[in-house]
């Protein structure tokens, strides 16, 4: 009977370690928030004190102004046969330190989609596109700190590029 408890502890430790290893090998994250699942997009402002709403469906419409953010994108071939996406903005600052906070004009991040499927949220001007093929469409959207897509006069601030042959 004296070996039962130590064996249980060893089993839990190894089992947990193996579980985490399998999860990590399959790209599963432990942050508890899946952006591909629309049921996870409630008003986080009420469930997480001090954080703004996290709504990807409602645009943040900006008035037309000379200092509105702009977005452009270019593809650059990578020597390994993949592609690098260069994201160019004006009047916009990537602000990872303010993510999920209140909207600050001219700050935020981008969402990148390949063939309408979101591949991630980014806080810089370069993204390596690994598994893309000729003809795939890459779309980039500017998003506020509170995750709402930015728009000017109801036209989204976005750019698209197509992976060349």
Short structural summary:
The chain has 165 residues and is of the alpha+beta class. The chain is 16% helix and 34% strand.
Name of the CATH architecture of the domain at 55-162: Sandwich
CATH domain topology of the domain at 55-162: Immunoglobulin-like
Q: Find the structural class using helix and strand composition.
A: alpha+beta
SSE string: HHEEEEEEEEEEE
CATH class of the domain at 55-162: Mainly Beta
Q: Work out the strand percent.
A: 25-35%
- Proportion of residues in helical segments: 10-25%
Uncertain stretches: 31-53
User: What is the terminal separation in angstroms?
Assistant: 68 Å
Folded structure, characterized:
- With 165 residues, the protein is an alpha+beta fold.
- It has a domain at 55-162: Sandwich (Immunoglobulin-like).
- It contains 2 helices and 11 strands, in the order H-H-E-E-E-E-E-E-E-E-E-E-E.
- It has helices at 4-25, 44-47; strands spanning 60-62, 70-77, 83-90, 93-94, 107-114, 117-122, 126-129, 137-143, 150-152, 155-156, 158-162.
- Strands 4, 5, 6, 8 and 11 form a 5-stranded mixed sheet that branches. It has a 3-stranded mixed sheet with strand order 1-9-10, with no helix packed on it. It has a 3-stranded antiparallel sheet with strand order 2-3-7, with no helix packed on it.
- Strand 9 and strand 10 form a beta hairpin.
- The longest helix has 22 residues, at 4-25.
- The chain is flat, with a radius of gyration of 20 Å.
- The relative contact order is 0.18.
């Amino acid at each position: 009977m004296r070996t039962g408890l130590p064996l249980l502890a060893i089993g839990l430790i190894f089992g947990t370690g193996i579980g985490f290893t399998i999860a990590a090998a399959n790209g599963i994250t432990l942050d508890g928030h899946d952006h591909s699942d629309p049921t996870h997009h409630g008003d986080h402002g009420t469930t997480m004190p001090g954080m703004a709403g996290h709504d990807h469906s409602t645009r943040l419409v900006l008035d037309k102004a000379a200092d509105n953010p702009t977005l452009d994108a270019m593809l650059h071939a990578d020597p390994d046969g993949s592609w690098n996406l260069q994201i160019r903005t004006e009047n916009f600052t990537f602000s990872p330190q303010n993510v999920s906070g209140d909207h600050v004009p001219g700050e935020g991040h981008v969402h990148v989609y390949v063939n309408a499927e979101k591949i991630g949220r980014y806080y810089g001007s370069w993204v390596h596109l690994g598994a893309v093929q000729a003809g795939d469409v890459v779309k980039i959207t500017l998003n506020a700190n509170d995750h709402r897509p930015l728009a000017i006069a109801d036209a989204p601030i976005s750019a698209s590029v197509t992976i060349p042959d």
